[in-house]
Amino acid sequence: MTKVICIVGTRPEAIKMAPVIRALAAEPRFDVRVLATAQHRQMLDQVLRVFGIEPDIDLDIMRPNQGLATLTARLLLELDGVLLAEKPDVVLAQGDTTTVMTAALACFYHRIPFGHVEAGLRTGDLSNPFPEEMNRVVAGRLARWHFAPTESARQNLLREGVSDSQVWVTGNTVIDALVSVADMQPDTGLPIDDSKRLVLVTSHRRENFGAPFESICRAVREIADRNEDVQVLYPVHPNPNVQTVAHRTLGDHPRIVLCPPLDYLPFVGAMQRAYLILSDSGGVQEEAPALGKPVLVLRQETERPEAVEAGVVRLVGHDFDRIVGEAQRLLDDPAAYAAMARGVSPYGDGHAAGRIVGVLREHLG
Ligand code: UD1
Ligand code: UDP
After folding, report:
1. Active-site residue, selected from the candidate residues 204, 299, 304, 355
2. pLDDT tens for residues 64-75?
């Protein structure tokens, strides 16, 4: 038996690792353990519940308004203890969070081979997104297996000197997760007015905290003010830096619904119901194009250029006029809207997890 520990810490990691955990568990030769760092507590539990995953080990790391250095130090210490005790043959983790960076580093110290799911995404700017670009560069430097979602992610790794023999283009497992639920057309369970066009908003990036996030919220309010036929739905990330500003600037608007983070199924239902999505989320940039929903990305740069190149996602940053102008154009101009509302899926075909497990099967003899 090959002992594989799958590490998950935050909401998107659990969504994107769930298909991998499921595929590994289906093969008797793998002894699969799930380690939840619980860098996110409530949002991780939400996802684990939906996908029926029970962690074997739970580090319960999250603290309110946690700082990056403290989070990193605590994760590294706890992961060190687990790897020492469990002695896995392989560790897998997905993405670019502090959980993933510390998992790769702890594996390096223990000389345990580390497989990086969603490898090779880069903006080339260590401050954007912050701290994720640094996290994935470190994970990429330390990984034994690089599971790149796209060819351009593979090219990024080759440019950094990673050997071609260690990189596989698998697609992104988020599309596996999405297709496993999208056919259900889940209900949002929220007071959505069907006679209005739904604008779905998510925002949580650390580099946007402060003035940029204030500007984003003012722009969302302006879009609602200008368009009587628009309703905004914004599931607000629990980070206090986000909660305070979102509720202060948007909480009293009659056509803006603020709610706690949605479970994955209702959120997919909200994306399916949306006319337009405004988001700084990585996962949403990948899922929405597959559902044919235009996304205005509330960031200066993206490590996911494929959907931008396909013309179905547009970078608008955090400038008030730019956000309002681009959203208004899509609300007013049917041709501009139709050009962006094409269902394309540059990030995967729903079979990424099977490819990842296939590589491990082959390489672990
Ligand atoms: C983290 C990741 C980011 C990822 C995002 C996904 C880092 C540094 N950041 O950002 O890359 O895009 O998750 O959502 O790894 N909180 C709760 N309950 C929860 C989750 C968070 O109350 O279930 C609050 C806590 O006060 C916590 C704070 O949010 O301290 C920040 O959580 P943290 O994981 O540090 O950062 P995120 O902004 O969530
Ligand atoms: N998501 C969710 N509920 C919400 C908002 C988002 O389930 O209220 C899902 C979304 O479909 C995507 C993932 O969470 O798969 C994105 O997570 P997040 O935006 O927190 O992180 P990022 O992708 O930016 O790292």
Report:
1. 204
2. 999 999 999 999
